[in-house]
Amino acid sequence: MKIDLTDTTASKINNALVHGRRAIGTPTIGMVLTLVIVTDEEHAYDALKAANEASREHPSRKLVVIKRVSRSPRERAKARLDAEVRVGTSAGAGETVVLRLYGDVIDHAQSVVLPLLLPDAPVVVWWPVGSPVDPKQDPLGALGQRRVTDTYAAEDPLADLTARASRYTPGDTDLAWTRITPWRSMLAAALDQQHAPIVSAEVEGESYNPSAELLAMWLADRLGVPVERTVSDGPGLTAVRLETKNGPIVLDRPNGSLATLCMPGQPDRSVALQRRDTSELLAEELRRLDPDVIYESALKYGTDRLGAPAPEAADAPKAAEAKAAPAGADAGAKPAAPAKKAAGGGKKAAGK
């Protein structure tokens, strides 16, 4: 069911939601969170489609905020709010409100969204594109317990990673980080079977790929070894190589779907490492709303330190530390490590 409202208010939108639920015979609310999607008209369809698919795992009220920039000064002076209220099958599992803001109301989007939030439910704010450098300081971002961005959509992903590291606030996260969850899981499982010290590492992927940079920073941060970032033709991440005292551990994915895991003393194995859709990434981020301390630590390591000489050879406790931080497991920040020197050796980070 779809209800169109022109030049409306938040009160009328809430009334339309109640009317829509009653009309389809579901007067009760069974949603677990509010997902605020801040996007433009061009990307609204794809973002809402991904959110609807993710809502099958996380029933939610989805508020899509689209800021419509007026062309003439006269139109910009007129404040107006249009809305589409969707309930039932067209809204996934939950409810959807598409908000189109015009004129001065664009500068006060939070005042439109605030009355539409579900009471006593967590709020997640997601920017598919055009995310602010400091999400917590954004008026809409300040409403959320979790703020989801995507550095992959930035014009300069590496500069964006650096800026986000300096402004990180607990609750910030990035779909570029979520994309490497299977890689981190696979590498952690591989290290569980190897007890030889890690000497160095190499991460291979497309240029200007923030997921490759984050994976390299995670390895360097957790293992305390130099990590080289090399460039390939893709797609996305293509390989990780860990040099150990017993020989290399290689996870190679040349085609974006099937990878080969090579380990010393074991036969090569094929493993599924499919590139995932946005809906799967979003659903993963909505599974937990507490701060991701492993992401914070990797992000703050810094792309400029990749390839730096290690302060000391990696030892067994550090290798065990990396194994203890599989994908999505943020509990237990790493112990303090000796200060690492600024980047001076090794290959240059991609795109720099």
UniProtKB/TrEMBL annotation:
Annotated Gly residues bias: 343-352
Annotated stretches, region: Disordered: 305-352
Signal sequence, renumbered to the chain: none
Residue ranges, compositional bias (Low complexity): 307-342
Residue span, Glucose-6-phosphate dehydrogenase assembly protein OpcA N-terminal domain: 51-165
Domain of life: Bacteria
Segments forming domain Glucose-6-phosphate dehydrogenase assembly protein OpcA C-terminal: 170-299
Pfam families xrefs: OpcA_G6PD_assem, OpcA_G6PD_C
InterPro entries per record: G6PDH_assembly_OpcA (IPR004555), OpcA_G6PD_C (IPR046802), OpcA_G6PD_N (IPR046801)
Protein name: Glucose-6-phosphate dehydrogenase assembly protein OpcA
Organism of derivation: Streptomyces gamaensis
Lineage: Bacteria, Bacillati, Actinomycetota, Actinomycetes, Kitasatosporales
